[in-house]
Amino acid sequence: MALEGNVLIGQSGGPTSVINSSLYGIITEAKKHGFIREIYGAVHGIEGVLRKQIIDLRRETDEVIDGLKRTPGAALGGCRYKLQDTDMGTVFRVFDSADIRYFFYIGGNDSMDTAARLNKAAKEQGYELRVIGVPKTIDNDLPETHHCPGFGSCAKYVATSVREAGLHTASMYTSEPITILQTVGRNTGWLPGASALAKSQEDDAPHLIYFPEIAFSIEKFLEEVEATYRRVGGAFIVVGEGLKDARGEYIEVQEDDVATDAFGHPTLGGVSEFLRNAIEKNLKIKARNIKLDICQQAAMHFASLRDVNDAVAVGKAAVDAAASGLSGFMVTLLKEEAATGLIELEKVANVERKVPVEWMNKEGNFVTSDFLEYAHPLIQGEARVLVEDGLPVYARLKKSFIQL
Predict the structure, then answer these.
(1) How much is the CA Rg of the chain, to the nearest whole Å?
(2) What residues form DSSP beta bridges with 32?
(3) Per DSSP, what are the bridge partners of residue 239?
(4) Relative to the CA of 366, which of 28, 92, 286, 320 has its CA 20 to 30 Å away?
(5) Is the pLDDT score of 384 beyond 80?
(6) With the CA atoms of 287, 302, 10 and 68 taken in that order, what torsion angle do they form, in degrees rounded to the nearest 10?
(7) Full set of structural domains in the chain with CATH
(8) DSSP states of 76-145 as a string?
(9) Which tens digit of pLDDT belongs to each residue from 139-176?
(10) CA separation for the pair 106, 75 (Å, rounded)
C-alpha cells in the first residue's frame, strides 16, 4: 500500500564493518519507489532526530553511496541514547515537519526497543508512520534471526587474529607461553566461540574458550590452563569480556557514572588483565593479554562477503516491507545467503539470544562441531576494498543538512 512521504534512516549502537552495507541497501531500494520523495539520514541516530540534525541522502553521489558497501564505522553516526517518553513530542514534531512516513533504524537489541516504542507511539498519536528495524550486531545476540549482520565479518577477524597470534605464541613458548585474547560480547559467547574456526590441528590455538553463558570458576580455570601448559608447552585462551561467576556477577566491571551507558550497561574490558594476573600470581607462568576491542568491529579490509551480502539484503527487505504496508517489524536473516524474513519488534527488543548449551563441550571450555557448522558459512568470501598508496580508501558522506 503506497504511502507518499519521506524516508528517515538512523544507525544506532556500536558500528560493525557492514552496518553501512545495510544503509546502502535501504537507500538504493528506496530510490526505486516513486511514492518515496526524499531520503534523509539522522546524524547519530535518534539523538540526531531530537537535535534536528538530518541530512539529505539524495544529494550524495552514486559513487559515495556505492562505497558504503566497503566502508566500516557508522556513516551516519551511531548513538547509545535511551529514548524517553518525554522525547516523543519532539520526535514527532520533527517527523511531521520533515514529512517522515518511513523510519528505518539499524541497530541491535536496544535499538529495536527504540523502534518498537516509536511504532507504538505513532499508532497512539494517529501519525501515519511505518517503522522497520534493521538488525546489526557483532554480538550475534538478536533472537528470532538465524544470524546477525556484522557477526560474520567479526567472527572472520577474530578467527584470523587467533590463527596468526597463535602461531606467534607457539613460536615463543619458552619465554611467553600463555596468551589470553579477549573479545566483546557482554552476555553472550558467539564471538569467543567463533575463535575455534582458527583451529586446524589438535594443538593449534585456541586451546581454551570461556563463555559468559557458563559460570566462571577461577580455580577450575587455573587447573585447565596449567594442564594445557603441561601438555602443549603453552596455552592460547579466548575469553568473552562478560565472564560471570556462579552468582551471576561480572568477573571484572566498571560501574561508575562515566562507565555506565544510558541503557544501564556497565563498561567491561578488564577480564583479560584479571586472568593474566591470576595466572602469573598463582601458576608463576609468564602471560600476555590481547584486547581486539573496536578493531574487530571495524575490520572492513578482511570482511566476509557473505556478511556484506546479508547486510545489503536486510536493508532492501526493510524498504520492501514498509512499502507493502507493514510496520513494527524487524527484518530477520534465514540460513541461506541474503534470504530474509520478518518478526515483530516486541519479540526482539531487549531480548538476548545465548549460545546454546549443547553447542559447548561438557567442560564448558570449547565449542562442539554444531557451533562450527553454524558459524563457518558466515565467514565465507572476502569483500573487496579500494586501495590507494597501500591503504584502503573509504567513503564519507558530505552531509548536506536540511532546514527544519
Answers:
(1) 22
(2) none
(3) 182, 210
(4) 286
(5) yes
(6) 150
(7) 5-149+301-351+380-393 (3.40.50.450), 151-299 (3.40.50.460)
(8) T--------GGGHHHHHHHHHHTTEEEEEEEESHHHHHHHHHHHHHHHHHT---EEEEEE--TT---TTS
(9) 999 999 999 999 999 999 999 999 999 999 999 999 99
(10) 12
Please give the Cα distance from 131 to 342 (Å, whole number).
13
Beta-bridge partner residues of 208: 237
For the chain, how many residues are written? 404
Longest CA–CA separation in the chain, Å: 70
The β-bridge partners of 178 are 235, 287
Catalytic residue among 87, 113, 139, 310: 139
Neighbours of 308 (CB within 10 A): 27
Looking at the predicted structure, is the pLDDT value of residue 252 above 90? no
Q: Has this prediction a pTM greater than 0.90?
A: yes
Whether 307 shows a pLDDT value over 80: the answer reads yes
* Cell matching residue 91: 520526535
In one-letter notation, the amino acid at residue 238 is V
Residues 6+ apart with CB under 8 A from 266: 250, 253, 254, 255, 259, 260
Q: Is the dihedral of CA 352, 10, 117, 307 positive or negative?
A: negative
Is 139 a catalytic site residue? yes
- Residue 269 binned pLDDT confidence (cut-offs 50, 70, 90): low
Q: How far apart are CA 44 and CA 327, in angstroms?
A: 22
